[in-house]
Amino acid sequence: MNLASPLATTNSAKPLRIAVLLGDALSLDSHSAQVLGRFAEHESVQIFALDVNQSTVHGPTAHEPRVPEQSSLTALLSQAVAAIEQDKLVELIFNDGNLPQPLTQSLYLLDGLTAAKLRLHAHAFIAGFAAGNEATSGVNAAVANTAAVANAAAVANAALAAAKRSPAQTVQYQMVANTLNEAFVALRQGITALAARTQVPLHGKEGENQQTGYWFSDQHQARVLCLNLVAKTSNQTDELRHLNQSIVLTQGTQVIAPKALVDENRLFVPISADNIDELITQVLRLANTVENGAGTLENCAGFRTEQLKPWFERYDANASLALVLMAASIDDLKLEAKAMLSALENDAVRHQGQAFKTPAGSCFTAKPLGDAGLTFVYPGVGTVYANMFNNLHEYFPALYHQLEREGDLSAMLQSPLIYTADVKAAANMSLSQQAISGVGASYLFTKLLTQVFNIKPKMALGYSMGEAAMWASLDVWQTPHAMINATENSDIFNHAISGELTAVRRAWQLADDEAIVWNSFVVRADSHEIKALLPEFPRAYLAIIQGDTCVIAGCETSCKALLATLGKRGIAANRVTAMHTPPAMLVHGQVQDFYTQALKPEALKPKAQEAAAQDSPIRFISAAQTAPVTLDSASIGRAIADTFCSPLDFSALIKNATEQGARLFVEVGADRQTSTLIDKINHAHAGQSTENATTAAIACNAKGADAITSLLKCLAQLISHRVPLSLAPLMLPLNANAAPLSSAVSPQGEPL
Question: What's this model's pTM, rounded to 2 decimal places?
Answer without folding.
Answer: 0.89
